[in-house]
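Collaborator request, handled under Task 6.
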Amino acid sequence: MLPAPRLRPLDLKRHLFVRVSLFALIVLLLGAVVTLLEARYRVRDDIQRTGVAIRQLITEEINRNYSAYDATLAELNLDLTALKAMGQVIDFCIEMSDFHASTSHHQCFAEAIDLPAPVETFMRWVVGGDAEFRGSIGQYPGITGGQLVVTPNYGREVLELALKLGNLVAVSTMILFFSYFIYRPVRNALAPSEAILSTLSRMERGDLEARMPSFALIELNRIAEGFNHLADRLARTIHSQQRLARRLLSAREEERQHLARELHDEFGQYLASLNAEAAFARELADESVPALRPCVDSIVKTVAHMMETLQQILHRLRPIGLEEFGLVPSLQQLIAGWKQRSRGTRFTLAADDGLDDLPDNINVSLYRIIQESLTNAVRHGLPGRVDVSLRRGPTGLTLEIRDDGQGVRSGEDAGQASKPGGFGRLGMEERVLALGGTLHIAPAPERGTLVSVNLPLSNAEETTTKERL
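Structure tokens returned to the collaborator:
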């Protein structure tokens, strides 16, 4: 099966603006090129046609009023009135010289304009340096009266070209201006997409209260209604899962508390009795049967070990002093216990003040998460340092357990790496889910593993209040 083609992201508004701008720029550039070419060929053609007509008029004027040997061309008083009418239509300049190559007459038939050197150079480049007409005037059999040169009036041509280019700029500007009237309805039509993306972003960040607004477009409004209905169902489902998780955790803690009480009251009493009987047997062995002393000592050691193990089991089932002394003292006692058992590892605890008023379910969950994280770090990470940080912010609690051990193995789930079967992470996820928080387990920036927990304190306190009511 062929992979689906990868679609490039498309911003319709920006795409439309770029397309229209490029179209206006292309119109301007093509129009400028066409205008320059049109000016070039027009001027060159006009010069040739005009030069022939001017030479004919001047020759006829000379032949009509003078003979070939009356005077030189410079001394002739020619009437060029007929040329003035042509000069108003076609911009040109004439220059006449006699057979001695001395200029006798130079005239532009429209107002001459002094151009900056770069502008005149550019205009000459557009029209062409050879754009001129040269011809003989006053020609008799075997005699030439003078030379006529007709050239463009570059100043007037620049004005005409600037006017046409200005019109092109105006047309391109109008295209951009009209594109705004196209862009505006498109922007208004796509405006709901920003509200949709904003709502989806809020939902992605965990805001279950995010809802789509109402839209004027019927189809989008139906989509918004469907999304809001699904969001309501999702919120109810998550709340139901959290409520169920809280009940399961409460039942689990109650069962642990009951089991701890039974072990303490029943099994603990039996061990205490057994320890007393062993002590009495030791005294009898010392008095009557010394050979039984090693057996009695072994019984005493076994009972002491069982009582120590029982204390550890009871501590794991129900933290000692959590209800009586609060969360921070219990965590300090937990850290102190790990310091005694793992002397090669350094443990630190940093907790904010004002954590004494937390609900009991939050205290128990935080304690269990820290307890499980420490166990996983020591047993599977072999760290040299484990740091626990508990901070209280404006909206909730932030817990971080960082170690410098072996860390999460590549390609393996963090929860399964920390405990076979992944039940350690599963238990932490259940507690965090029940409180509406987030759990993240990942490799630490430098080395080891980082466990991050965020609990929205307000939601947890409100939930606890409702459950008590």
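The cover message to the collaborator said: "The chain has twelve helices and nine strands. The CA atoms of residues 286 and 293 lie 7 Å apart. Please let us know whether this matches your experimental observations."
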